[in-house]
Amino acid sequence: MQPRVNQRVQLWVWERAYPVRVEDVAPQELTLSVPLESGQPVFIPSGTQVRGCVYTEEGAWEFRGTVTRCVRGRVDAICVRMDAAPIPVERRRGPRQKVSLRVAVRRLDYWPIRSMDALLVDLSEGGGRLELDNPWPKPVAGERLLVMGPRSLSLLGRVVWVRLQFERSRRFAVGVAWSEVSRLAARRWLEP
What we know:
Blueprint: E1 8-13, E2 16-26, E3 29-33, E4 36-37, E5 40-41, E6 49-56, E7 59-71, E8 77-82, E9 87-88, E10 97-107, E11 115-123, E12 127-133, E13 144-149, E14 153-166, E15 171-178, H1 180-190
Antiparallel strand pairs: 1-2, 1-6, 2-3, 3-8, 4-5, 6-7, 7-8, 7-9, 10-11, 10-13, 11-12, 12-15, 13-14, 14-15
């Protein structure tokens, strides 16, 4: 998998995650938008080790690298030399339980935030699979979701893959990885 310009990237620096995007791609080097903290750019010193996750329609791909320089300009950026090509992330950390739960999904990256109905078809401590009918706009990898259901089910996650199931009805299967806090909630919800 080769990263592309404008792809979303989750960049971990000093054990903190920042959403950034790919500005340019060169052999073994990515130019990424500078992370922001409270609206201010965070210029990462050269030599800093980072970890990143690129979100594509096919799933999530992780890479490790070193910041080589910061570039100030119209779009402030950092250059990261990748240690190796991105590798697919194994997302399943636990067994999945088949379920059939009607849930409400809030797409947190769109404004205004609205609830939409969905079907949660499997659930594990690490993630789940949703079926969405006719969502607009089409779900994309990297998007944040809040899934709410019965028995106080409330899970925050990030889309890791999207597949069109039925073109005519625009039904999508969506894989979601839960946040750290939501993993505990999913585990409690799955307990008998």
